[in-house]
Each structure stands twice: as C-alpha cells, then as structure tokens.
Amino acid sequence: MTDPSYAVDLAARLIRCKSVTPADGGALALLAQELGPLGFDCISLPFGLGSDRVKNLFARRGQVGPHFAFAGHTDVVPVGDASAWHHAPFSAVQEDGKLFGRGAADMKGGIAAFVAAVRQFVVSNPAGSISLIITGDEEGDAEYGTKKMIEWMKAHNYLPDLCVVGEPTNPQRLGDCIKNGRRGSLSCQLRVDGVQGHVAYPHLADNPIVRLLAMLAPVNGIALDDGNDYFDASRAHVTTIDTGNEVGNVIPATVSASFNIRFNTEQKAEGLISWLEDHFNRVGGQWHADWRLAAQPFVTPAGPLTDLMKASIIEVTGVVPELSTSGGTSDARFITHLCPVAEFGLVGQTMHKVDEHVLIDDIDRLTTIYLVMLSRFFEEPR
C-alpha cells in the first residue's frame, strides 16, 4: 500500500520550484533533502560554464548489485502568458482531483512518484542498489545534463542493470504506453545563393528558389523507408522557407530553408547527410548546409525490462500497455549507452500547455506501479 499524501505533496513542492531551464529553482536541493535520510549518497554534478552551467543530481543507495535506476528531469519549459493560466503556474493548486502547475506532467509528478516508491521500498532494507539520475537540462540543449552524467557514471563504474525514465508516456490514461525507443532527429538549415534581378529580365538574374525547391523535393513530407518492427517510417518535413524579400518583382539573391528528419534505426545520420548533399550537388549551384544532429535513434527490444514494466502496470491498472517509439526525443537516448532503458510515467495530454495538470489519483497509482517494479526486480531470482 502506497503513501498517497507524500507523493502528491512532493510533486506540489517540486512544482513550486521555478526551475525553468537552465534555472534550478531549488528543486534538486529539495530532492537531496528527501533522499539523504533514506540512505542515499547525493552527489551534485554541475556541468558547463557561465550561463550554460547546469545543476544535476546523482543519488545512490547501496554499492552492490542488482542495481535499479530511475531517471528524470526537474527543469521545465517557460509558462508563456502567465495571465492565461487559471492558477498561477508555480502555485501547485489542487482542484477537482487535479494538480495544476508547470511541470506537473512533464515531469515533476513522475519524479515525485518514483521518489515516493523508493521511500517506501527501502524501509525493508533491500540488498542491492537504487540510483536516481536527475538532470536540470532536458528541456534545453541537453548538453550539460544527462549526457554528461552518463559519461561521469561510466567513469566511476556506476552501471545500473536497467533504468526507468519517468517521462509522461501515456496519451489518454495511465497504463496506455511504454516508450521503449525513440526516433533520431536531424535538422538542416540550407542556404542557396543566386543572383538578384528584375523578374521581367530573368536572363539577367539567377533565381535560387528554383534550385532550392528541387533540393527540398526528397524531404518535403516524404517517407524515407518502410519502418520496422519497432518504428514507423522515417519522415522528413520542411519547416521554413525564407527569402527576406519584401517585394514581388525582385528575384532574390539568396533563399534559405529549414527541414527536420525524424528517422528510425533503418537510417544513420551520416548516411542521410551524405545522400542529401549528393542530391544538392546534382541540382547544382552555390549552396551551404548547416546540420544539427539532436538525437540518434535507439530501441530497447522487448525483453526483461519491458516485461517487468508491463507486468507491474497490468497488476496496478489492469491495462495492457503497448510498446511505442513515437513522439519526440528524451534523455533515454543518452541512457541507452549505459544500460537497457524504457520510459513510463503520467498522462501527457497537457505537458507544455497552459494549465498543465495531472490527476492526483494518477500520481498515487504511478507510485504504486513503480513500487511494484522495484519489488519484482529485487525479489525475482537472478
């Protein structure tokens, strides 16, 4: 039986920490204060310099295996127009069975649930280790958060057997979905150069838009493959086109466009870049491409970790979760280089929105699910 008041209260206290990336707002110190009395060694891991400096927290209880890890982030996105919220974004108001506030879903509610589960589980003084990998840099560029923490953990030989990330994975109800992988994300800013001129005298100009449109043909809403057992087809979409042209009778000198490719494990970023740059060269003319690889794709195949998570979710909710790799990127893309990883948390319908909220009962039920995961993991023979 879980302690319902503790998880909800901790979620509310975390929400009241104004931890908009890269600010910490006291959230990590609050977690350290909660975890220290439970026997956790809490290690502050700041990375980066100056305005890029980010606080992170690694907490571990126990020094031997088996080793279970939870991961999450305390940073949140900006609130936008605060006056559009029915309740102040960081007030953590409870109303109509819901907890309101920025980060309630993404993902302070999830962190509160796994801390509450750990709090109850360690009362029995289990053998083995539990780690919490908490970053303050997930919603930003993620350069000085989990990525650096994983490098630090490897260097210190802190190697969990598995990791559960408390991201809000469920689209409709608690139990709908486990994320066992994520697509890669590759962006490009493409500039094509030409010669400015009067549209009435096109022979005296060189319209770069003509070439740009030909260059964008393979990435304009196109499926790049057929997908596989874990992923839908890789897809590319043009997101901006801009000439800076304010009149209708001038051929511009330059034109730029942005596009993004969300790609599965059938593709590699290097291969996509090479393929597209070869295509740009075939179109011809002067061009320049700036590439940004935000994430490589990864998948944790169905197996011991997903089986453990599924059984725990079914036991508490009666819902059979599906395995999914949809959605954006997450810090699980870094953790996959450390150990098997999958994500399960609260319902994410309102994440990043005005009046972000979660059901209070869901926080308590998620706590119970995490508690069952811990019990099954440490009690099963190895």
Determine the strand fraction and express it as a percent band.
15-25%
Helix content: 25-40%
Structural class: alpha+beta
What is the β-strand count? Answer: 20
- Main beta-sheet strand count, sense and barrel state: 6 strands, mixed
Number of helices: 9
Cα end-to-end separation = 26 Å
Radius of gyration in whole Å, from Cα?
Answer: 24 Å
Mean of pLDDT: 96
User: Overall 3D geometry?
Assistant: elongated
Strand arrangement, major sheet: 1-2-6-3-7-19
The helix-strand sequence is HHEEEEEHEHEEEEEHEEEEHEEHEHEEH
Ranges where pLDDT stays below 50 over 5 or more residues in a row are none
Describe this structure in words.
This protein is an alpha+beta fold and 382 residues long. Helix content is 29%, strand content 24%. The strands form 6 sheets. The protein has a 6-stranded mixed beta sheet with strand order 1-2-6-3-7-19, covered by helices on one side. A 5-stranded antiparallel beta sheet has the order 12-13-15-10-16. A 3-stranded antiparallel beta sheet has the order 4-5-20. The chain is elongated. 48% of the residues are buried.
Task: Summarize this structure briefly.
With 382 residues, the chain is α+β, with helices and mostly antiparallel strands. Helices cover 29% and strands 24% of the residues.
